[in-house]
Amino acid sequence: SDSVNIAIDGPAGAGKSTVAKLVSEELGFLYIDTGAMYRALTLAALREAVNMNSESELSQLLSKCHIQLVVNEEGASVLLNDEDVSKDIRSLEVNQNVSLVSSWEAVRVEMVERQRQLAQKTHSVLDGRDIGTYVLPNAQLKVFLTASVSERARRRHEEQLKKGMPSDYEQLKIDIARRDELDSTRAFAPLKKAEDAIEIDTTTLSISQVAQAITDLAKERT
Ligand code: C5P
């Protein structure tokens, strides 16, 4: 396809979604939050008490989940079978189960199929764990964002508080370290920097500095 795609990967809380949103606005591209898709399925599994250790049950559930990523003036929202679940997918329970849900190959294959379809339709910025390595190996620009665990927990903490949601910094640090571990060691399409990705350590950078650096790179390449 002719659409331009930018892949932004990295561990939880490295600032991917905030940065991806800014870059997509600046370039006029669609923002595709792939983590939100895995979170929506996790929420559905929790609600319907689906066994998250069962690959086949999850994959059957996913076939009944219509997941839409909508961007409007109020920001990005996520619809699960037409219900706005943007807040619900950020709960502690979802945080604690999403890495298990997204570790299953059958789940990933279907999600990746949906992500590729979205990406080939329009110029887009995708954020996730495996975009550069697996979903879009031919993306025009691949960025790998990192930051220390404590800095990432601090950012998530502030983000939650700003949204008026309950937050526990120490708990977030534990969750983030655990998700890092699970996401990087899973057998199928683990979190990993693509060989041709540009790594940016954001620990001491502001959001706008990171977004600017990526936008500049994108303009050079497209
Ligand atoms: O990006 P976010 O933190 O919302 O992602 C939630 C979880 O979804 C990750 O910890 C990971 O387990 C999973 N995920 C994934 N592949 C992606 C995006 C997210 O496995 N492309």
TrEMBL record:
Gene3D superfamilies: P-loop containing nucleotide triphosphate hydrolases (3.40.50.300). The keyword Transferase applies. It is an enzyme of class 2 (transferase). It is found in: Cytoplasm. Keywords: ATP-binding, Cytoplasm, Kinase, Nucleotide-binding, Transferase. Its EC number is 2.7.4.25. Residues 6-219 form the Cytidylate kinase domain. It catalyses: CMP + ATP = CDP + ADP; dCMP + ATP = dCDP + ADP. CDD domains: CMPK (cd02020). ATP binds at G10, P11, A12, G13, A14, G15, K16, S17, T18. It holds the Pfam family Cytidylate_kin. One of its GO terms (molecular function) is kinase activity. Belongs to the cytidylate kinase family. Type 1 subfamily. HAMAP family: Cytidyl_kinase_type1. This is Cytidylate kinase. The gene is cmk.
